[in-house]
Amino acid sequence: MKKKITKNQDSLSRKISRILILIIILILVFITYSFIKTKYYKKGYTSIFGYAYFIVDSGSMSPKIKKNDLIIVKEKSKYKEKDIITYKENNNYITHRITRIDDNRLVTKGDANNNLDQVVYKKDVIGKLALIIPSGGLIKKIFVLPKVLIILLMTLLIISITISYKTKNVRSKVKKPIKGLNPNIYIKKDITKNIDKKRFKGMLKVDLLVIILLLLISSIPITLSRYDSLAIGKTSTNIAFYLLKPDYVTNNIKLTTLTPSDTPYVYTFSISNYDAVSTSEVDLEYTLKIVTTTNLPLTYKLYKNEDYTSNSSTNLVTNNNTTIEQDDDGTYFKYITLNKEEMYYTTPQKNNYTLLIYYTRESANAKYQNTIESIRIIIDSNQIVDT
Questions:
Q1: In 3D, which of 284, 259, 264, 266 has the Cα closest to residue 274?
Q2: What's this model's pTM, rounded to 2 decimal places?
């Protein structure tokens, strides 16, 4: 028998459809409003009824606010000490706590920072923290990636088609010339499947709603809640890395003089939290990584604060911290990754490193002529944050 759809069911379906359409329209209006605000009026964030939203991109407000949290701030006419506010500084949005108020000027500081920020004027304040959604910003980082987005959309389409199928049992009359039996016998035929157009349209509306929500998420601006130091970081291309603030620095080793030899090529460099002018004003930790191509038969040794010619010195390059990986272009790289080192702002510190690169005479071969080898020293430093 054909299943009947009652008026109540039809009415409920229409109501749900209208609600979905209304939500889609409202979100589209909001996205259009955000686009106009950010693109044409050059406003880096969207505010509705005094509320604005940001994704936190660093951890200087830990443990109160962590990296990747989604925060909502509310515009206020007055602010007081200990309020957490988001303000604009140049082209960045900073989220820190008020430590002092002097008329229209505010002094702020990150909970995990060692130093105060520069003066903030009330006209640059966007609002006071109203809500924290833990890890809410990960949605933007994960679901708006092209690969993830394509997979998600294909999955939604497959689910929509699957749910929209309806099945129907078909029976037909077949006469059986058997004595004593009814000649009209109903037998079951194959089950047929058809797409329910109404149901499919409803599912497409849901898919559209998900896509629009992802577009909305992708428009959420970033607030740095930055790690801050008054000192300015810089790197000498010769031998020194000055880590005066959290940073990611790299230096390429020039191998123009590297030839097969019985003695190693010696490259020295240092990593410190001070230079001739300033010392870092935050506690830092750094990871040292040496990345090389594998075109030449080179071997490496690395020493820290030791005389590499001494028999008691310790080579930091081991099988445990060395890996070979292949990139998307098919090039193989060797990664030597050392353990984290800590430097505290209360004490100027320096670590001296000696990198030995061995290209032995036994490895001399015409096939390596004109071969290019890349060796990079990479330092990734972060502020130490107590959690």
A1: 284
A2: 0.44
